[in-house]
Amino acid sequence: MTQVLEFRLPDLGEGLTEAQIVRWLVQVGDVVAIDEPVVEVETAKAMVEVPCPYGGVVTARYGDEGTELPVGAPLLTVAVGAPAEDDQGSGNVLVGYGTGAPPARRRRARPQGGAVPDKPRRAAAPPVAASTPPPPEAAPKRPEGPVPVISPLVRRLAREHGLDLRELAGSGPDGLILRADVEHALRAAAAAAPPSAPATAVPAAQMETVSTPTRAASLTSMRAEGLTPTRPESVAASAAAGTSATLATGTRIPLRGVRGAVADKLSRSRREIPDATCWVDADATELMHARAAMNAADGPKISLLALLARICTAALARFPELNSTVDMAAREIVRLDRVHLGFAAQTERGLVVPVVRDAHTRDAQSLTAEFARLTEAARTGTLTPAELTGGTFTLNNYGVFGVDGSTPIINHPEAAMLGVGRIVPKPWVHQGELAVRQVVQLSLTFDHRVCDGGTAGGFLRYVADCVEQPVVLLRSL
């Protein structure tokens, strides 16, 4: 009889009380095996793949990617069949879930040719020669019962190195296997591996000048003395191996947390989006004067980012192709009727892109307030998943890092990103005369599937015109 079992988020150890769902590894309807990883979660200390102690069909998942769940909250449900009489359940244990029974033993395969012959198992063996070595002694029986492991990281480390945890004696309380136990076992296994005895080699170059009969005799003599002739490519390979052995070793840093999520998203963007970039220099002197005039009046101060965002939304109204996404499954370009403007924000945990909802309906004052709120939430790590997803276009002000230009990677699945460099005094021809003006470099990286260069160039030129002459915006207000 089928029964539905609920799998709850286990205690991942080290006093952690919650975890964030980073990536689901299974879908509803998938068949999972016992101890198969079903979800990847991020705690305050590590990224962990959580295995499910049940085998069956996934019937429900609780929580979307980005959702934070407390320990003990339901993760998913699995429909399992009636357990067999000798079904012993999962052999792996995490705090908060798992079974206490030993893992099921593999059954011995029966012969396929009909009934099993009615012979005693210990039949007399035929006589053997005296030189036949005696059979090796049976290996000691492994301990029964669950593996005393709490941390999924310990289990993963052992699995990646092919180490059977049942062969270890834990040094923790009540025989608990710790990471130090696994690392000690791996070091011991590496030290116990016998080094391959190097053969005495004779360079083949010394043999090339020997005639064929003499060379054959030399080879016979060398083999009799235990020497191994070496071919030229073998010598080169040995030299290369020796060179690589002297190279400096580096430190491996796991791609986890925000850094891992950024790496996955940027890699996907590079794989799927055929992007192109165009750029232009613009005289931002008048825009800076306009902002100064706004802030001189009564009322909240207006940020430069808000003015640039207002220019972006006006440009997207003229060039809606860039406020779109591509559905390759349906082979369609989806033009979006609302602008949800993302902006890049650097935090201590890494790069995040908060999203301003319905940016096209906001004025400069409203955009300033929303940018300030989301930036503070990003710095304190309190952004919600809804505030980090759903963007349709991204504004990247990399000028705050003191650089002029960049070719940014599009924030998948969006179609374009406007980059803004630093605003610095530069020589500029203004009204026919050379003058020192406030100059900025603007760049547009766009998905070439949604438009051609003419559209992208028109968008960027309109943005530059608004930066140089902010009164152009009055036409669309």
Globally, the shape reads: elongated
The major sheet is characterized as: 7 strands, mixed
Number of helices: 9
How many E-type strands?
A: 23
- Which secondary-structure class do the elements indicate? alpha+beta
Helical percentage: 25-40%
Q: Which stretches are poorly predicted, pLDDT < 50 over at least 5 residues? A: 84-133, 135-142, 197-219
Beta-strand residue fraction = 15-25%
Gyration radius (Cα, Å) is: 34 Å
Q: Report the end-to-end length measured between terminal Cα atoms.
A: 67 Å
What integer is the average pLDDT? 78
Describe this structure in words.
There is one protein chain. With 477 residues, the protein is an alpha+beta fold. Helix content is 26%, strand content 24%. The protein is built from nine helices and 23 strands. It has helices at residues 152-160, 179-192, 212-224, 232-245, 257-272, 285-296, 304-318, 364-380, 453-468, and strands spanning 3-8, 18-24, 31-32, 36-42, 47-52, 56-61, 68-70, 74-80, 93-94, 97-98, 201-203, 228-230, 275-283, 324-327, 332-335, 341-343, 345-347, 350-352, 355-356, 393-396, 416-420, 424-430, 433-447. The strands form seven sheets. Strands 13, 16, 19, 20, 21, 22 and 23 form a seven-stranded mixed beta sheet that branches. The chain has a four-stranded antiparallel beta sheet with strand order 1-8-6-3, with no helix packed on it. The chain has a four-stranded antiparallel beta sheet with strand order 5-4-2-7. The two termini are 67 Å apart. 25% of the residues are buried.
